[in-house]
């Protein structure tokens, strides 16, 4: 293993050059298929991880249920104290864990550290929440009666997560789930098992120090077989799934068919609209970050850009200048802005998307190819580096695959409009509904954009790019993005089971609606 990778793994107490156990449910095991963690920057194999065998998955589910039965009776503010300790433990390893995210996923270091910070932030939020998960007292129409709406812990929550946020998505779910009194079982992406192991070591250390069963925050690494086993299991009360639309569509149906709860956070196809009165000195860098940050591998990455005719030439020339200044590099190096795609397969997806654009006659303004490995030099020649691409398709038709498909790579399609209504129709004209952004100084435009005839996405920003959400508001998307909401806002209400409790304090037993049923 390279010195750099060894140092990052050692700092997180992950053994080097060994087959790692990829299952935790109070103790570490792992005897299933072998997963390989590969560095996207160099192609180096970072570790081999033994995933969950079917028996181990079964045992993990069983232990999760047992852990839930203990954890649900711990008062919520006491659970909050455990979350506070998890927050402290995570913050003390923020830089090391952020470096591992960068090493294993490929995003640049500041984004890796930012992702861990997001986990810290949501843990803070959930500490407060643990004293504020209030039910309600509702007025009854019957004398001497009260109605309570009571939130109780739900049971076992499984979190199936995508490769691109290998820490934060689990954090959003774990923090709310623990505050609510559930046991959580995590299956991370098969290509980021080290992040799963490192986070679970930190969290389980806190649980063990507090005498809480480790299976309150269990881990099962594995590929789609393990995922399918979780999704089908009656022992899982809620499946929180983050990933592609294709897999999410299947997961949603399977969970629904057994009447489980499901929370879906699927793909986005996010647009930015720039009006002629926009401040371009802010809008151009925001589009640049949105389209190129994380090498276009955020669910909220900017994929479609709609420019008002009056500013389109100037906007594109300024954006192209920023693209031209971009150099690919080692994501762990502080000066790097552009890291690799996560896998070799993603490079194929990128090349196919560019080929499709060329076939329909799109003008490729910049990019459109892989970086020449020889020019990058060793060890980056083993990495998955592609050129961020700006394309202008010949027509703006949201029925066309070049516009309506989420390509998980830095490919930005540009269209030119004359009226805001036209651009809003394009924004809404795709199946996905995650994030959207309007740049304007005119309050009338803002009113249209955030109102009933405005953007139909879950995230509707003004003078803020499509990516980089904070944890305070509920995060998620509409339409084929799955309608799920995680993180802040009212998202916690999905992690509990609600009971309506009507209590009669009187000496009579009247029926509601004045119904008489004489005996
Ligand atoms: P993916 O759908 O390939 O995998 C997601 C998870 O599902 C992985 O853990 C995978 O092992 C598991 N899985 C695969 N097949 C399964 C099956 N049959 N049953 C159960 N589980 C199965 O997604 P990915 O490539 O890792 O991630 C990229 C996608 O995730 C993009 O579409 C992106 O937009 C989306 N995403 C969405 C959000 C959001 O909040 N909306 C956030 C991050 C990523």
From TrEMBL:
It holds the Pfam family Aldedh. It comes from the Eukaryota. InterPro entries: Ald_DH/histidinol_DH, Ald_DH_C, Ald_DH_CS_GLU, Ald_DH_N, Aldehyde_DH_dom, ALDH7A1-like. Its EC number is 1.2.1.3. Residues 33-498 form the Aldehyde dehydrogenase domain. One of its GO terms (molecular function) is aldehyde dehydrogenase (NAD+) activity. Keywords: NAD, Oxidoreductase. Homotetramer. Belongs to the aldehyde dehydrogenase family. This is aldehyde dehydrogenase (NAD(+)). It comes from Postia placenta MAD-698-R-SB12.
């Amino acid at each position: 293993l390279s010195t750099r990778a060894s140092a990052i793994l050692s700092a997180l107490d992950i053994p080097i050059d060994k087959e790692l156990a990829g299952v935790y449910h109070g103790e570490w095991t792992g005897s299933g298929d072998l997963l390989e963690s590969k560095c996207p920057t160099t192609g180096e194999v970072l570790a081999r991880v033994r995933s969950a065998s079917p028996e181990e998955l079964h045992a993990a589910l069983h232990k999760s249920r047992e852990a839930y039965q203990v954890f649900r009776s711990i008062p919520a503010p006491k659970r909050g104290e455990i979350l506070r300790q998890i927050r402290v433990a995570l913050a003390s390893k923020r830089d090391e864990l952020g470096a591992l995210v960068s090493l294993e996923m490929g995003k640049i270091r500041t984004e890796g550290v930012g992702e861990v910070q997001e986990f810290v932030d949501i843990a803070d939020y959930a500490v407060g929440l643990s004293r504020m998960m209030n039910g309600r007292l509702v007025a009854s129409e019957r004398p001497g009666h009260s109605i309570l709406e009571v939130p109780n812990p739900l049971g076992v929550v499984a979190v199936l997560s995508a490769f691109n946020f290998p820490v934060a998505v689990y954090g959003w779910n774990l923090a709310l789930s623990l505050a609510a009194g559930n046991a959580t079982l995590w299956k991370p992406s098969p290509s980021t098992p080290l992040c799963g192991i490192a986070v679970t070591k930190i969290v389980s250390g806190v649980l063990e120090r507090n005498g809480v069963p480790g299976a309150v925050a269990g881990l099962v690494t594995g590929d789609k077989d393990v995922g399918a086993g979780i999704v089908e299991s009656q022992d899982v009360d809620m499946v929180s799934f983050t990933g592609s639309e294709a897999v999410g569509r299947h997961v949603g149906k399977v969970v629904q068919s057994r009447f489980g709860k499901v929370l879906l956070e699927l793909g986005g196809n996010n647009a930015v609209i720039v009006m002629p009165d926009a401040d371009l000195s802010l809008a151009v860098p925001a589009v640049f970050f949105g389209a190129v940050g994380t090498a276009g591998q955020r669910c909220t990455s900017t994929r479609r850009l709609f420019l008002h005719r009056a500013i389109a030439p100037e906007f594109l020339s300024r954006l192209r200048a920023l693209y031209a200044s971009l150099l690919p590099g080692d994501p762990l190096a502080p000066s790097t802005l552009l890291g690799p795609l996560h896998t070799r397969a993603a490079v194929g997806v990128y090349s196919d998307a560019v080929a499709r654009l060329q076939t329909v006659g799109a003008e490729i303004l910049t990019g459109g190819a892989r970086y020449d490995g020889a020019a990058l030099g060793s060890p980056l020649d083993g990495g998955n580096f592609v050129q961020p691409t700006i394309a202008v398709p010949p027509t703006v038709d949201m029925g066309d695959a070049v516009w309506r498909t989420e390509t998980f790579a830095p490919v930005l399609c540009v269209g030119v409009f004359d009226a805001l209504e036209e651009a809003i129709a394009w924004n809404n004209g795709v199946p996905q509904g995650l994030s959207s952004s309007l740049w304007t100084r005119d309050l009338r435009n803002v009113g249209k954009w955030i109102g009933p005839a405005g953007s139909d996405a879950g995230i509707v920003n003004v003078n803020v790019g499509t990516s980089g959400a904070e944890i305070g508001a509920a995060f998620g998307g509409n339409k084929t993005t799955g309608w799920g909401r995680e993180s802040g806002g009212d998202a916690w209400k999905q992690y509990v089971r609600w009971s309506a409790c009507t209590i009669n304090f009187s000496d009579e037993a009247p029926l509601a609606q004045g119904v008489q049923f004489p005996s």
